[in-house]
Specification:
Helix content is 27%, strand content 22%. The chain has 419 residues and is an alpha/beta fold. Strands 1, 2, 3, 4, 11, 12, 13, 14 and 15 form a nine-stranded mixed beta sheet that branches. The chain is globular. The N terminus and C terminus are likely disordered.
Length: 419
């Protein structure tokens, strides 16, 4: 009996230990570190942003095939964007700033002051890998409701998510929430412009606004942006970014509206990062309380300005903002790094997006001397408000490749295949 009892007890204990072991063995944690070279937490989202897509006739005429063609072949802007691709591939979500409305395919086209640019720009944005575009700008109403509808429909057909100006009031109330293609989490994206260049939309909902203090609509604009941010989080957004479109041009310092508006937005606690365009120049990066603000990204692509004092129009900044945290767990997320690269609008006499840092294979953007001068100038501007260089780094792909030679960029996924 003792033998049977002892045997039974040993067997029971063994089964009990197995059961306990089964209950206490933790499941392996699935991580989603994305395309950035490091991630200090379980999940990361690397957001790539840059300045305005600003097209004048002097730019688009260099890429025309048959301007009157209506089948999407009137222009080919792919070469203009091509150098951007490796930077987008080392990010997770890439967002453009679409400064202006677009014309019908085949034209007619127009430039400053009332823009109506070739729609093939949107096609090229899709080809290079942008996941989304914002288009709440001072030029959003240049072509009225028809221009907004054309841009919306063309970006949608190209598989690009969007926010900023709207065909319907229902669309205007929906926050844009983007799943990271690399699995790190969800990004909410909000935008707003301070100005419509003195014009007034037929309905206030047609363009997202962030009017200045003193304007009777200022407080309601802030409240709408915050409400959209909250709605985005209710729909699962782990982080929320807001893009501000300013109107004071060619300033190396943030203007009074940019500072007051960004600080007011940051004080709401609704946004994880704030970034801006519209000034057509590179501006500082600031950490205000616990919120990072990238005031001005300049132009991503644009025609060369030869007007004295406006040379800053010919440069920009592209930034990769990395958020780290745990997917689906509010309160765990923060900005842990911002990588920035100064850019030129030309490469060796041709219109091309060109990283001034020298990572491209075809030599300097302008010349060694000019590139060095502009890189140093933009570097000084970026850190002029005390941005921590342990978080804010100049982005060099060559250094990144040496640090993590085994890591290959994960493929970008579009929300819809181009038709």
């Amino acid at each position: 009996m003792r033998s049977h009892s002892a045997s039974t007890t040993a067997s029971d204990n063994a089964e009990s230990n197995v059961a306990v072991s089964r209950k206490t063995t933790p499941k392996p944690v699935t991580t989603h570190h994305g395309n950035s070279p490091d991630c200090p937490d379980q999940d990361c989202i690397a957001l790539f942003v840059n300045g305005d897509l600003l097209f004048h006739e002097g730019l688009w005429e260099h890429f025309q095939n048959n301007p009157s063609a209506t089948d999407g072949t009137a222009f080919n802007f792919d070469p203009l964007f091509a150098n951007m691709k490796p930077y987008i591939q080392r990010s997770d979500i890439s967002v453009c700033e679409f400064e202006t409305p677009i014309a019908p395919r085949g034209g007619p086209y127009s430039a400053y002051p009332i823009f109506n640019i070739p729609p093939e720009v949107a096609d090229a944005a899709a080809h290079v890998g942008y996941n989304a575009c914002t288009h709440g700008t001072n030029h959003s109403w240049d072509q009225g409701s028809a221009g907004i509808a054309r841009l919306w429909d063309t970006l949608a057909a190209d598989g690009i998510a969007q926010t900023g100006s709207y065909k319907t009031e229902e669309d205007s109330k929906k926050p844009l929430v983007i799943n990271s293609p690399t699995g790190g989490g969800k990004l909410g994206l909000i935008t707003g412009t301070v100005s419509l260049n003195g014009m007034t939309a037929d309905h206030d909902w047609q363009v997202d606004r962030l009017r200045e203090a003193g304007d009777p609509n200022h407080e309601s604009d802030i409240q709408k942006a915050v409400a959209k941010a909250k709605a985005a989080r209710q729909q699962g957004a782990d982080v929320v970014a807001i893009a501000m479109h300013s109107v004071q041009e060619y300033l190396t310092k943030a203007d009074s509206w940019q500072i007051s508006e960004a600080h007011e937005l940051a004080d709401t606690g609704a946004f994880d990062v704030i970034y801006g365009a519209g000034c057509h120049c590179a501006q500082p990066i600031e950490k205000y309380h616990n919120t990072w603000i990238v005031y001005g990204l300049g132009n991503a692509v644009t025609v060369t300005s030869y007007i004295p004092g406006n040379e800053v129009n010919n440069q920009g900044v592209s930034a990769r903002i990395q958020f780290a945290g745990k997917r689906g767990k509010p309160g765990t997320w923060r900005v842990n790094r911002i990588d920035w690269v100064p850019t030129a609008n030309m490469q060796q006499g041709q219109y091309r997006w060109c990283p001034i840092s020298g990572d491209h294979p075809d030599g300097y953007c302008w010349s060694q001397q000019t590139d060095t001068q502009q890189e140093q100038r933009i570097n000084t501007i970026i850190y002029s408000l005390g941005a921590d260089s342990n978080v804010v780094h100049e982005w060099r792909l060559s250094d990144e490749q040496q640090q993590s030679p085994q890591k290959q960029p994960q493929p970008q996924q579009q929300t819809q295949q181009k038709k």
